[in-house]
Amino acid sequence: MTSTATVGPDAGETIVDWYETAARDLPWRRPGVDAWAVLVSEVMLQQTPVARVEPVWREWMARWPTPGALATVPPADVIRAWGKLGYPRRALRLREAAVAVVERHGGVVPADVSALEALPGVGTYTARAVACFGYGQPQPVVDTNVRRVVARLVHGRAEAGNARAADLADIAALTPPDARRATRFSVAAMELGALVCVAGTPRCGACPVRDRCAWRLAGCPPHDGPPRRVQKFAGTDRQVRGRLLDVLREAHEPVDAAALEAAWEDAVQRGRCLDSLLADGLVEQTDDGRFTLPT
Predict the structure, then answer these.
(1) Is there a domain that residue 80 lies in?
(2) What are the pLDDT digits (tens) for 79-133?
(3) Is 42 known to be catalytic?
(4) Are residues 80 and 106 in the same domain?
(5) How far apart are CA 186 and CA 16, in angstroms?
(6) How many folded domains does the chain comprise?
């Protein structure tokens, strides 16, 4: 198998060159986009495809262009604006992060990774992404796409498997030495994994580093681990929670239990999902027993 000793920064340079002509024109990557816009995009992009995120991101940035603007609105407005992106707790965490930015950093998203990680809902990946894409810092930014590129290019494996502490070191070994190109490499490797080195059926003929890819040189061996689980949606608690939230998003005042009963027939599952929404702070119950989005 190949190692990072034989696939190094020259491969990273090639990936950066490829990116300059192959990259998608995404609004949060354009010149002049600030760290707040990057943070909003990164939170929205967690487990949600770009095509669904882009229109919602544009609406959010037009409505709440700064952390201070988002921090002042009630949670119900944020949940409504989140729409169909899924995993709506992210919307509340993003508002909480905006409040923290205002209170701790004078309304300016911090550039320091540790300070970013201290914001509500911001983990290591998101913190590094904001520092890199929002402030131009050379940071190893490792998502699922990047890990798959490294697994194939460096280690000769079809899939990345579970996240490892060594992932950051692998990326650092591939990163070009020039600071500007190092920053560019983080997004370029991500784009390569999203467009070319995809799961299942990679487009190896379009890959700029196919002649150095350990996986191709080994004959493209199949994944030797358990098959990836395909997440279903129909009939899951996620679907039920979404149906219940849809009722509350469309309501202009608190609704009674009967309105929610119409959203899902199974009373046991509906009750369980309603309880989880209450526990997550996505729904509130009024003194008279009705239900509403948080105020």
Answers:
(1) yes
(2) 999 998 999 999 999 999 999 999 999 999 999 999 999 999 999 999 999 999 9
(3) yes
(4) yes
(5) 9
(6) 3
